[in-house]
Amino acid sequence: MTTTGTERTHAMTCLLLAAALSAALLLPLPAAAAGPAGAPRGAELHKAKGVACADCHGKAKKPSYVEAAQCLTCHGPAEALAASTAQVKPENPHASPHWGAQMQCAVCHLQHAAPVDWCAHCHRFGFQVK
Ligand code: HEC
Ligand code: HEC
Ligand code: HEC
Ligand code: HEC
Fold this sequence. Notes:
Elements: H1 5-26, H2 42-48, H3 53-57, H4 68-75, H5 78-84
The structure holds heme C (4 copies).
């Protein structure tokens, strides 16, 4: 028996679906939650705007995680940031019923890796994070 083009296309679709599903089960987040591959990272975007390493990391010899309070010295106060994205649909990423405007920024806006729609662990808001 020879397979027709349609059957082959269908088989391919099933294979792709199966691959996508198993990938979805293995990954902690849906692939769509990550930023576009090769897009400039947060720290590079900041550098282009004149924000230096020390503006986030201070004088630490060994830079590590940057707390929201540091981001908010430039982007705050938290309530004003939340107000600036009040129109974002379907929900405001900066004002959730769980944490209000008080949350860590770098769970979404990673600065040295692709940004992440962190809410996608549980919701499907489809946030486009930079
Ligand atoms: C020293 C001030 C400063 C600090 C600290 C700072 N930023 Fe920024 N950030 C800026 C400036 C300036 C821009 C560019 C604003 C513009 O172009 O309108 C920017 C842009 C952004 C953008 C928007 C990027 C875009 O292209 O739209 C995000 C998101 C952001 N910062 C998040 C953060 C986070 C998260 C932190 C902490 C980890 C942080 N920033 C720390 C000054 C700062
Ligand atoms: C749940 C993920 C998430 C977290 C946590 C988060 N953001 Fe955002 N942020 C977003 C999304 C999504 C956008 C883009 C909104 C849009 O579509 O315009 C955004 C946009 C921004 C912008 C651009 C605002 C504008 O007016 O265009 C800045 C600056 C920013 N975030 C800073 C921060 C800072 C500072 C924190 C921590 C206090 C933070 N964000 C926490 C998801 C997040
Ligand atoms: C806008 C704020 C911001 C700027 C500017 C920035 N960083 Fe970071 N950095 C972070 C955050 C937030 C983290 C936590 C990990 C992440 O978000 O990717 C981090 C983590 C790090 C770490 C620890 C990495 C790890 O795995 O623990 C190092 C080292 C570092 N940064 C170095 C730098 C250097 C060098 C520069 C300048 C070229 C720089 N950073 C600029 C926010 C910033
Ligand atoms: C660990 C899982 C988890 C994470 C992460 C999470 N949520 Fe939720 N969220 C829930 C649960 C559970 C509910 C309650 C749903 C219900 O009662 O119907 C909820 C309810 C909500 C609601 C009320 C409306 C609705 O859709 O039910 C909003 C708005 C919301 N979350 C926003 C956010 C935002 C924004 C983020 C990211 C900053 C986020 N959540 C992250 C689990 C989560």
